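EI: anyone free to look at a 89-residue chain?
SC: sure, send it
EI:
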Amino acid sequence: MADIKNPTNPHSAVTASGWTVEVDPNVCIGASPCVGVAPKTFELDGEGKAVILRTVDEDAVENIINAARSCPVSAIKVINPAGEVVFPE
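SC: here you go
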């Protein structure tokens, strides 16, 4: 099983720098480009859905945003510390 950041909600996490990363498991199709772009942030769970790893802070925010952009179904939302949605725009 993945070493997830938030065991109560493996699809949502706040980074040490205050960014919020969310994955909508109802939208995620498990295509996994997010894993390739930000492997310290995302992993697929046993159901083939992206979850957020405890190592999320080891990926640059820019990589996390690019991972969100790479998702073919826009299942990943990235919110800056001011509460503004950076992706999807």
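EI: The chain has one domain: 12-84.
SC: 👍
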